[in-house]
Amino acid sequence: MKEEVPIAEKLAKEQREISVSQFFTKNKHLLGFDNPRKALSTTVKELVDNSLDATEEINILPEIIVEIKQLNDTRFIVTVEDNGPGIVKEQIPKIFAKLLYGSKFFKMAQARGQQGLGVSSSVLYGQLTTGKSAVITSKISRNKPAHYYELQIDTKKNEPNVIKDMIIEWDKDHGTKVKIELEGFYQKGKQSVDEYLKQTAIVNPHLNLIYINPEKYKMEFPRVTKELPKKSKEIKPHPYGVELGVLMQMLQDTKATTLQSFLQNDFCRVSAKVAKEICKKAGIYEKSRPKRIAREEVENLLKAIKETRIIAPPTDCLSPIGEELTLKGLKKEINADFYTTVTRPPSVYRGFPFQIETGIAFGGDIPKDEQIKLLRFANKVPLQYQQSACAITKSVINTAWRNYGLSQSRGALPIGPVILLVHIASVWVPFTSESKEAIAHYPEIIKEIKLALQDIGRKLVVYIRKHIKSKEQKEKIDLFEKYIPELAYSLSKLTNHEKDEIESKLKKLLKKELPTLEAENGAKE
To answer: Would you list the DSSP string of 318-351?
Structure first.
């Protein structure tokens, strides 16, 4: 009798390795490609973010051209061209046609991209929906040739598939141009490509952007400053942010020959004195070889790190927009009566430095009787989706805006003629998903956002009391003055006094009352 094959062995034969490209082929919504409208916006976002990071790498003012051509109701070609440093020929296929490939993931410095998914995920989406290759042209120097590639992703291997590779003439000193054909949907308004680019121009006032939309209408977002953002410097990880498994791996990978030198050289803010103190608390000899430290000893080491006072990490790894440039960005794109900005001092969560900035535009063309418009940003990138899931939104809702002159219902955004900007700058932004649309609810981050909102709220209420309240009172006085002749006529009938005399006294009384009201407003401030 033939022995039956165990079910476990049958199941074992069905097990196969899944490449990262195959995973995201089935789960493209995780990368921000939930629907055709969002797919178009996400593709532009990833390409523009790459261009901005590239130009900042070589400290030049960014010149970016975005063009979207509509081929039919659902198909578009997105082209983004920049004046960045270009890309070395050998790196082009991997950067654009291999998921989870990049340098920013390993750097402890502020950057727009950080996962190695962005631009290659857009190439993958275009390939999935149209079957067309991504077209990349790049040039690194005036004296070097331009390289032209047509690329696809081999999803089984997560490797680039080069369809065409050639040298071409390109009348440009240096830069990169990317063209992706994809299925999408173009619509103006909230969460549109147009809105994304406008918001990008606000928080990148040094950017000169030209945008040609699917209707062939050309929009220009000129720069308002030639001042480049402060370049963020790479730092080493802070001990407070390390986890047990990571610490174990660091001990195996280090080039240091002693535990003390490992702590000093592989982390920031650890001096010789602090390193010796950690070793003593952990009960481990400071000259022990890092690779020979046992797991139980690593646990003691981690506990000792948490019990040792270590100064906060340096903040030169951050590149905030700054109050002055945030103000210029708001004024450039928003017509309002009042603008103000606040940049908070740097803080830390899980050992990662971060900084919160806020800005407000009030009045002008902004609707009065609607909820405020909230603009969320992370590392100078607009966050257009998943607003309700974001720590920024939670912080805004939980701020008592009635104290600052705005009406607000419980659990809702305030109402008023306000556009509120909130920006987080960090070496590692804690996004809730790979699509990078919402910030995780870390208590340290929420606390800093609320403090920034309170700072800016106090500035707003001063303006409201000084200008809006006095304006309303003036309108009431003007209205009363309008009816003085009619009131004087009625009083004349009742009292048999002269109408002109009564009218004159009422006007004198009104003039006397106005300075009193203005003085009261000044006292309140």
So the answer is: -----HHHHHHHHHHH---SEEEEEEPPPEEETT
